Amino acid sequence: MSHPHITVAVENNDEAQGILRVAQRLAAERDANLTIICAIQPFYTLYADVAYQPTLPDGSSIEEAARRECNRSLSELVGDICPKAELRLPIGDPRHEIVQVANNQHSHLIVMGLHSRKGLSRLLGSTTAAVLSGSECDLLAVRPADAPADGYERVLIGVDSTTTAGHVMEAAKPFAERAQTVVIETVVPPISSIYGPVPAAAGESWPFPAVQEDLMKAATARVVEMAKCHGYRSDQVVVEAGQPADTL
């Protein structure tokens, strides 16, 4: 039986250490192999409009110099924290390179840092969201500054009331089992925020409060049932109305 595989995406900065420690702990718990990837962003993709490609005094490109520096600093760090891991330093768009490595390795999990809070990022971050969309496995987004080496004390599991919730709950179990506090959160968008214009167009008033209450009860029953099936308690389930991106 082959060992599970974890792909770990890092940058050459101070945040890499926290991400690597989380990845190493997961690998040890799952007896998994690790591949560490630090993708070097091509200069032209960042400054395409200036039509300029700098070269260094030794004739090498800025990407090659960055790759050498990454290899120097990350090789030592990876050797200290993840001694059995493979380190890869491709030159290319990180969003594509991370997905390609993970899919080619048939990874079971991708671990990477969570940085930006702009745009899509209110939940993820542009690179993280792109990797999640393009990969074939689960993704663990780590906030590097708060990354624990020995597991998470508080775990929030965000799910909807569809059948995918069961998969999410099951995937979260290795983290939840070691946590002191676990909350399974389902956020139901208010009906009025979705169908608000309909009553006015129809010339009648919809019973939004009663319908919303019935919807909340149905969602609660559904999520509680799935939670129990996956070994969680009913009192760990919280269902509330709101916008998922804001409430979670």
Key phrases:
Rossmann fold, 248 residues, 10 helices, alpha/beta, 5-stranded parallel β-sheet
In short:
The chain is built from ten helices and eight strands. The protein has helices at residues 16-30, 43-46, 62-81, 94-104, 126-134, 164-176, 191-195, 197-202, 208-229, 244-247, and strands spanning 5-9, 33-37, 86-88, 109-113, 138-142, 154-158, 181-188, 237-241.
Average of pLDDT: 83
The name CATH uses for the topology of the largest domain is Rossmann fold
C-alpha Rg (nearest Å) = 22 Å
Looking at the overall shape, the CATH architecture of the largest domain is: 3-Layer(aba) Sandwich
Task: Summarize the biggest pleated sheet.
Answer: 5 strands, parallel
Number of domains as seen in the coordinates: 2
Based on Cα principal axes, name the global outline: elongated
Q: List low-confidence stretches.
A: 116-124
CATH superfamily of the largest domain: HUPs
Number of helices: 10
Distance between the termini: 38 Å
CATH top-level class of the largest domain: Alpha Beta
Layout of helices and strands, plus pairs?
Elements: E1 5-9, H1 16-30, E2 33-37, H2 43-46, H3 62-81, E3 86-88, H4 94-104, E4 109-113, H5 126-134, E5 138-142, E6 154-158, H6 164-176, E7 181-188, H7 191-195, H8 197-202, H9 208-229, E8 237-241, H10 244-247
Parallel strand pairs: 1-2, 1-4, 2-3, 4-5, 6-7, 7-8
